[in-house]
Amino acid sequence: MITKLRAASAQWTLVVPVAAFVVLVLTWHKDLPGWVVGVVAVFLIGAVLAAVHHAEVIAHWTGEPFGSLVLAVAVTVIEVALIVTLMADGGDKSATLARDTVFAAVMITCNGIMGLSIIVAALKYRTAVFNAEGTGTALACIATLATLSMVLPTFTTSTPGPQFSTTQLGYAATASLVVYGLFVTTQTLRHRDYFLPVTPEGKIRRDEDDDHASPPTLRAAGVSLLLLAVALVSVVGLAKGVSPTIESAVDSAGLPQAVVGVVIAMMVLLPETIAALRSAVRNRVQTSLNLALGSALASIGLTIPAVAIASAWLSGPLVLGLGPSHMVLLTLTVVLGTLTVIPRRATLLQGALHLGVLAEFVVLAVNP
Question: What pTM does this model have?
């Protein structure tokens, strides 16, 4: 019976990415009626779930922390492609789309995914245990890049409004790539142990005893890599297809345009959220935090350079500077994250505090 269920699951994850890609081809650049948007949304969710599965197969083959890095970069590629595509079509209306989406990604990952992972682990194991060196390093990089890329534009004077000049934007993009590159080197080469899961006693887990299957073969990992790429392309394209409906719904409801960025961030971060919660259930909170903070860092480190390059041919302005309320939330997130990380373990309370900050962010997005 178990063998049959596994076989059915494997077939499902093989078929769905291809089916989602076919739906993408059939609906590309077409005005979609409401019922078709509903069908597209179903295939979009299916492609996301399939992407999670194939990313976990690759992660199982590569091991930590490479597995978390694969999914973080893959999800960020979705985000970057979606942002640039929507900005190319949106003109002045999409001037703040990159800022809104990246900041929403930071809030969702550093408060939502992190908070939920801690709560899940704390409920099952009483406390969530992780490695402070690796988590603190990621948090420091996020704080630095978020400040350089999204806080400073509010205070610069070379260009009117919360925008960078061309020189300033070039530096921010370069710094983002350099810092992200240094972080990846630290995570995967020089200090890999800092990012490995730990036991309740604080010792590094070097075995894979809680992985209930043998590592996949090279061929299986290669197939998953190909299907992951197909699934991610499908997610980008299908998300773009439903984005006009999202924008129309936001406008009809009289909500701020920033809500569009929040919705986009939620869609593209769904694979990481599911993967992080699965790791938390298995008491691998460090893997959950690698996914959450690694995605936030990749979101800034890769999106800012991408939109900086794209701004050369985009007609509208590029507004990156945060408003006062968002700067307060960013500061609170960094302080709370630091206090959560220092003890190397967290309880239900810390997880709830992170979710409280995320809830406040959502409230302010809807009702600034």
Answer: 0.82
Intra-chain end-to-end CA distance of the chain, in Å = 53
CA nearest neighbour of 15 among 61, 56, 54: 54
Whether omega before 65 lies within 30 degrees of 0, making that bond cis, reads yes
Q: What is the pLDDT of residue 202?
A: 66
* Cβ contact 106:354 at 8 Å: no
Encode pLDDT of 191-219 as tens digits.
888 888 887 766 776 555 444 456 777 78
The full DSSP string for 66-115 is: HHHHHHHHHHHHHHHHHHHHHHHHHGGGGTTHHHHHHHHHHHIIIIIIHH
Confidence of residue 91 (pLDDT cuts 50, 70, 90): low
Q: Cβ neighbours of residue 31 under 8 Å, at least 6 residues apart?
A: none
266 to 45, 94, 113: CA distances (angstroms): 12, 18, 11
